[in-house]
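Me: I hope this is not a bother. Any chance you could explain this protein sequence and its structure tokens? It all follows right here:
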Amino acid sequence: MAVKLINANISAQSLTYKPGGKSVSFEVTVVNDGNQFASFQLEIVAAGSSSNLNNNWYRITPAVSAKIPPGDTTKFSVSIIDTPVIGFVGKMNVVIRIFSLELRDEDRQLLRLIIEPGTESVPMRVDLPVREFTGKPLSVIEIPVRVFNPSQTSVNVSLQFEGEASKWLLDPEIRLQVPPGEEGKTTFICQLPAPEETFNKKYPFKIRATHPNGAPSESPEGAIKVLPAGILDFRTYPNKRRIPESRLWLPQFGIDSATYQLEFVNISNIIQEGQVDIRSGDEDQPRCDITVEPEMVVVNPGETQQMEMVVRKRRHWFGLTKKLSFIVQANLSEEQEINVTNEQQVLKLSIHPVFHPALQILLLTILLLLLWSISWLNPESPFFGHQLSVTSVQFNGVAEKAVSGSQDQSIIRWHIPGFQNPLINQHDATLAKNIGKAVRVVRYKPVDNDVVAAGLENGEVQLWDVTSASTKAKAIFSLDKADRVLALKFSPTSNYLFSGHGSGLVLQWDLNNALLTSAISSNQPIRITKPLNGGNFGFSVYGLALVGQEKENLVVGGRFNSLLVWNWRQNKAFKVPYLPAGSQDDYIVSLSSAEYKPERLATADNQGKITLWNMQPCLTNTGECQIIDQWNDGHSTKPVRSVAFTSDGCYLASGGDDNQVKLWPLTKEGKRANPTGKVVRSGRYKINSVDIKVVRDRIRILSGNDRRYVNYTELPNDNSQCVQ
């Protein structure tokens, strides 16, 4: 029979323990029955569960005894601090094993442990099956969690995700019901953000478990590692620059640099350090001084950082524009796992000389224009043409010449081809200037066109020879120096000249006698103060026109919308009804008759109305003067200052205060062929006078405006509705 070397006994054969309550204790006494010094240890095993081999449910003091001599005794104190089997209620056997390494022997004692139901919940045990997770931005990570309930009651556990990554969870808190002594499982779903919203690093976290009846507990630390992702976008703006940046037409001194903005946009989750390399786009281009500030930028995820690239190059005073280009390469300071987009940009630079070539051309052009502006080639030259408002214009018989009068007290003869050819001077000659008063009306003598009559503000009618260079008038008709001359009309044979005055007088002058007397007189003009005939019709006379086959009927129009016919041979007059009857501010301002259709008359008033008349009935005493056509919207209801017939009566020209010259094609009956007419000139100034001629297949229109200009327009003659 083997000799027993260890003899042990326990102080209690049975103990009662309530989980959550006070611990219970017992003692183990050990006797060394060996023949040598020996140390002793205890091991306690609870029956019923092989998973509870750890010793966290009891505490032994001391853990290992000191060596004692043979026959001596040592004691161990054992405290039960937790239930050996989680959730167990009832009686279980606990084996106390006493052993010694020196004696190589053991002894076993049995303890009856009674487990009563617990009074309090105990902390949950939280575990992470996987401690580290990896993922790229925008990916979804599943984080499994296990919760063990060591208590004897079912527990409603709240699991909370703690850590910086909690903001990425779809639900950072999960509730879980865990039965006693069992394990519950759940999963947190993590949606990683966009690259620029996070960093490439580890984000530590813990799962905290709380429940109503126990202390909170935490899991071991886990971590989410966000992998590198995203791009670094490199941008430049503007991609084109010039020196100087603006006002290239003006010389600018001291400007020799251009600035470009270089921009790094970090659309990744890695902190980036950006730099640039710059090289010339063309090996043959001149060298420039290039600086970049700052040399390097640190760009956090989601940030934008800028650099300034300044290119300096001294500009030449003269020469052509230089075109330079630069290739800008974006680089990262370290090798990274992301790409750089648009990493190479081409920047262009135009360097203009101080005196831009275009400016040199412009200056030369300005000089030429200046010479042009004062030359006879320029119709608007201050040394040629009128300086004030043009009051009257008229073609000669073949429309190759024209005359005009102006408020600047001058009479000018124009060469019509010069209006079409810039190399020909349209200003043919100044017949008269500074003649005392403003010129209100000018008219060519119908026969030979060698004399021009001018009506002045001072009541004089002056006759000027257009064939000589004389600076003095040939003859002057004057009855009253205070009586303005507003209208003139030659008789068809040029024997007589009729003048209309502001006082209401219409005077008939003996033109032949005046010209014959002037031819045999000295250089001084002949002054004639007594007319052949005349009459005062009681209104200011603004228009005169001869009508009828015999051309002995003079139509007189003027203030109060007055219109009458005066037979100058018989010295008889009759009124022509004109509606509406005018007030003192209403004027018939222009009259015109067709040479080859002398019964046709056109009138225009300052209310904007144009009227076409058939005068035959009232001239032959067979009826009233007949209105063929009438309209008041031709010049936007604004005053119509002048009308003029072509000799065949197929066209009417008009000009008014709407700044327009219009052409009205007429039918053979004398009506408008086009109800709206045709705008042949539109400008910024009122039109005071118009004249019109048909020369072969062309229509020539002359106008004078309220500024200082005489204008000419030529159109095709295509009025098929006036064929006789």
User: Anything to note?
Assistant: The chain is about 5% helix and 50% strand.
